[in-house]
Amino acid sequence: MAEATGTTIVVDPSVKGKVKVVSSKPVSREELYELFLSILEVHGYTAVRSGGVIRVIQNKDARSAPVQVRDGNTGKASDEYVTEVIKLDNISAAKLIPVLRPLVPQQAHMAAYAPSNAIIISDLSSNIDRIRSIIERMDKSAVQQTDIVKLRYGVAENVVSMLDQLAKSEAKQSGGESEVLLVADARTNSVLVSGDELERARIRTLVEYLDTPLEQSGNVKVVYLEYANATDIADVLTRVMQNINRLDATEGAKKPRSDNSATIEADEGTNSLIITADTDEMASIEAVIQRLDIRRAQVLVEAIIVEMEVIDGQDLGLQWLFADSSGAFGSNINASDARARNIADAILPSDDTSTDISLGGLAGALANTGGTTLGWGQISDSLTMAVILSALNEQNNANILSTPSLLTLDNQEAYITVGQNVPFVTGSFTNTGAGGDGAQNPFQTIQRENVGITLTVTPHINEGDSVVLDIVQEVSSLSGLSAVASDLITNERKIQTKVLAQDNRVVVLGGLIKDDVQDGSQKVPLLGDIPFLGRLFRTDAVQITKTNLLIFIRPTIIRDNAALAGASAEKYRYIRDQQMQRREQGLQFFGDDQLPVLPEWQEQLQQLEQMKFNEAPAITEGQ
Asked: How many CB atoms lie within 10 A of CB 358?
């Protein structure tokens, strides 16, 4: 090789062995030398050129040998061992070394010099050319962008100051300059981060860590509640700590007891707890609060009250009376029949000399009389006689359906009342003057009571899909018999019970099925029993009343917002459907603008969201 290439070759003593190379065609002097270098590299040796001398040594010793140093690609690549310095323009040399290290042989040398941002590499010339090609593709201008990080707890100036100190320390250790720019915006309490994507991601991670609320130190801690009421939780925890202290006091020397007892105070304004306790007690109290401050389920209770009443009545009879100016009189008027009494008063003469029939009183009596009434009165000036024939067939049907419903929290009592507030006279007072001038300062005492439908319920949800209900259901109304009583009369149906019902299942609470038959007859003795003719002296009345009253209940457990929204939407759409039916029925009398209708459920939600958006403060770009 020395004769063929015209060079001086110094061989390391460890280089021994025979190599056989077969070529299918003649090779030139340059090709022979490259073939020679390839053979050495395959067997773990390399050629190091120093001036006009080529030394053949082991690869592991090549990086410490006085190899040739080149500044860049000098032309054709070869397998000679050289050293090259590659300068980078856009990326950090120190960050690129871990990426390139696996691409070079183990015996090669590669290091970064931060002050000049360069890479020093000692390896075969061909390998260095490959590494340089990779670096040229990676050493491109990085995309510089700016992120705006808004802070919630930290102060922008303080955060930027700490990050700048950290960046300067890292740049000093690496010998380079900081590759990221940080600017604090005091007006919006934001940090502006400018740099490449990797640096910006690293800075964002640091900012998120720094932008956290301060840890509460000492023996005082504030715990904000999400669902539970702070006052109720404070009372419960205070009793718990009192029981623990009492237990510690009974154990005595067995368990050391802290001199400072824990205190829990409630702040209603922020719905938070202010806890003063030792470290071990604080951890126990926080664990209890975490289990108590949970979202409570709700129960939608729907009551169905069905009341059906059927009244059939028949009334047929003949009543008569007479009076003579000589003092003779007689009658078979039913004392309980107000109609007959009023007609008799209008027909029969009074103690005055007038014998004319009171037409106004007679018209008023007939107006208040149901059915058919026929009469005949006043025979002569001295004899007055009234005959009243009453015939009535009455049938009343009533079908009342009430569906009160209410939503309440688990274990929370709730009630709903729909009805009237009716006054009842409870007493009266009259003060008579001493001179007999009559009553002075009379007054009555009145007490008002609710008359209608009242539903009181307290739900207790089990772990499964059932719920225990403490229910008080009351249905009251004014009675039609109030006209003959001294005061108002109310009908009352009340149920007080505790039931276990499954979720969304209808159960019956109770009811009343009543048949009331009243059959009455009034007649003149002996005369009223005469066949056919006895009808002239007899009055018959029959009334049949059938009452069906049943109360049903359906509880629905609502555990999340989706179920609550579904229940609300169902009621909302029902009311809207009723309004749409009324609008269709009233189109011939009114226009569409005179019969307003609720909007669609989704449209209503969109309007609410739009209202929230309009009321929200303006958000600047980047927040």
From this structure: 16
